[in-house]
């Protein structure tokens, strides 16, 4: 019982820290949009920042963290192995400094080529390519700083010290927001300040964790001799399976940024629209699937004959949440963008085009939610290759649609390409899973009825929102009045949707509450 209480305490505190990180992340984005708008410099900043971050999933929070934490936790749990744990850390630190340092050096040297790869369209705007290259070269060492920060975080997490490491993004977000609001308006050319702020934020993320790591008995200096420690090779081998997934994700980002670079302000606009869908995904889908997916995975392992029924029930539950969220983003896209980012140099024109792009991205939320469920179902069956092939299919669909849609539609074309690609990905995984493991006809019928009911109620709610849109249409900047009106619209929409589905016989609310209680009981 003591262990459960400790885990619950950690989880509750982490939830608060995660919320604060999301809030400060929004403040950072709001600040940058307010002083830069969606023009030349923000396009350059966003592209320059995206390139080193393309490597971040491999060398920082992604595969490194997933491979290192379990290995280190096993060693620190035994007093006799603590010396080995300290040697492993210093050896891995040495390896990462050497490898990532080399990547940073190459990135700085090859920056003109990398920028053209990610943003060929910048060549047509005088000076834009050169500014992006300069910012990229300054920002590239951030990759090394954040990798060291991730290693420090792994040490702290292996000792069940979660809060300090989880709160470091707060520092990065606040540094960028402060630079945007305090320095940029006073400078004729804020290029160096913006790029330098990224480095300061990364340095703080590593520096604030260093004293806590030292107090745990870990020296924070690399030790080249420790590279030969067997654990170092084991961690590096565990990282390898994550490389293909990372590569596919980053190719997707490259393609999106490359097509957006041919549109005036396209990189800035698509980032703002995608950021909203990302925030909704993190706030709704991730939280809900955190409860549902462990239950689904356990049932898939313990009762394979009922696997398809369990899976289809989870899919319908996810659509219950993502459908109304997508409808809201599609119908109220313009006032949502106006409320979140409007004001300063983020003009009414920027609100309009970013809103149109958000409409295009909105229903990708449904596909992304289904992909997360289906991929987890394959992982529960110890199958990691099928989701990888599915992501390749989605990548091809996305690329072809970008090529066809961006020309006539502009930035919204990228959104529609992403929405269709995610729907294709979800259908691909669903079809292969049901073909391989069989479909329970009764469960399939129940899921189809449930999703049909959700679509019907979501459509009615969408029509009602269209009637409300004139009342919200004047929201073109961040304000308390706009926030209150939007909260009233969203609150009434959520209640109407939940009540409508329940009145038509839906059991989703009760099942969600039961899943939450079950997760809490564990």
Description:
The structure is a single chain. By secondary structure, the chain is an all-alpha fold. The chain has two domains: 2-240, no CATH class; 246-517, no CATH class. The protein is built from 23 helices and no strands. Helix 2 runs parallel beside helix 7 (128-139). The longest helix has 37 residues, at 266-302. It is globular and about 65 Å long. The N and C termini lie close together (10 Å).
Question: How is the topology of this model organized?
Answer:
Elements: H1 2-36, H2 40-53, H3 56-59, H4 63-76, H5 82-109, H6 111-118, H7 128-139, H8 142-158, H9 163-183, H10 191-207, H11 210-215, H12 230-239, H13 242-260, H14 266-302, H15 307-331, H16 333-341, H17 348-362, H18 364-380, H19 385-409, H20 411-437, H21 441-472, H22 480-503, H23 508-521
């Amino acid at each position: 019982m003591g262990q459960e209480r400790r885990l619950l305490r950690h989880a509750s505190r982490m939830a608060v820290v995660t919320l604060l990180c999301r809030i400060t992340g929004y403040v950072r984005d709001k600040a940058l949009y307010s002083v830069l708008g969606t023009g030349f410099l923000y396009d350059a900043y966003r592209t320059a920042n995206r390139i080193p971050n393309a490597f971040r999933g491999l060398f920082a929070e992604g595969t490194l963290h997933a491979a290192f934490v379990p290995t280190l936790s096993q060693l620190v749990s035994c007093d006799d192995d603590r010396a080995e744990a300290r040697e492993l850390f210093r050896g891995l630190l040495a390896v990462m400094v050497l490898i990532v340092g080399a990547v940073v050096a190459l990135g700085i040297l090859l920056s003109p080529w990398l920028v053209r790869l990610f943003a060929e369209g910048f060549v047509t705007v005088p000076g834009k390519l050169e500014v992006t290259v300069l910012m990229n070269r300054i920002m590239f060492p951030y990759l090394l700083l954040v990798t060291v920060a991730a290693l420090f975080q792994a040490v702290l997490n292996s000792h069940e010290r979660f809060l300090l490491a989880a709160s470091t993004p707060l520092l990065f977000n606040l540094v960028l927001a402060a630079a945007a609001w305090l320095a940029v308006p006073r400078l004729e050319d804020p290029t160096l300040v913006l790029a330098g702020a990224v480095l300061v934020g990364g340095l703080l993320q590593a520096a604030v964790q260093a004293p806590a790591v030292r107090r745990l008995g870990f020296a924070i200096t690399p030790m080249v001799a420790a590279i030969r420690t067997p654990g170092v090779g084991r961690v590096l081998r565990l990282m390898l399976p994550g490389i293909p997934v990372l590569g596919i994700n980053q190719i997707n980002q490259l393609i999106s940024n490359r097509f957006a670079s041919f549109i005036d302000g396209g990189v800035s606009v698509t980032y703002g629209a995608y950021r909203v869908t990302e925030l909704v995904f993190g706030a709704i889908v991730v939280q809900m699937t955190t409860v549902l997916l462990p239950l689904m995975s356990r049932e898939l392992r313990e009762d394979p004959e009922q696997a398809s029924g369990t899976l289809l029930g989870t899919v319908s539950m996810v659509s219950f949440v993502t459908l109304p969220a997508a409808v809201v983003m599609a119908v109220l896209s313009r006032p949502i963008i106006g409320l979140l980012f409007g004001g300063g140099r983020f003009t009414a024109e920027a609100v309009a085009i970013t809103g149109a792009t958000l409409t295009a991205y909105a229903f990708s939320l449904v596909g992304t939610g289904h992909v997360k469920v289906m991929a987890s179902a394959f992982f529960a069956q110890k199958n990691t290759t099928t989701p990888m092939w599915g992501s390749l299919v989605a990548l091809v669909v996305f690329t072809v649609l970008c090529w066809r849609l961006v020309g006539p539609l502009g930035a919204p074309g990228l959104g529609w390409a992403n929405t269709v690609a995610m729907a294709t990905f979800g259908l691909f995984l669903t079809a292969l899973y049901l073909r391989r493991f069989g479909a329970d006809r009764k469960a399939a019928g129940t899921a189809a009825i449930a999703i049909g009911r959700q679509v019907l109620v979501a459509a009615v709610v969408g029509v009602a929102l269209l009637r409300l849109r004139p009342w919200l249409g004047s929201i073109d900047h961040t304000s308390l009045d706009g926030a209150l009106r939007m909260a009233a619209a969203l609150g009434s929409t959520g209640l109407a949707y939940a009540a409508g589905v329940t009145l038509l016989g839906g059991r989703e609310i009760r099942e969600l509450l039961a899943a939450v209680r079950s997760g809490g009981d564990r």
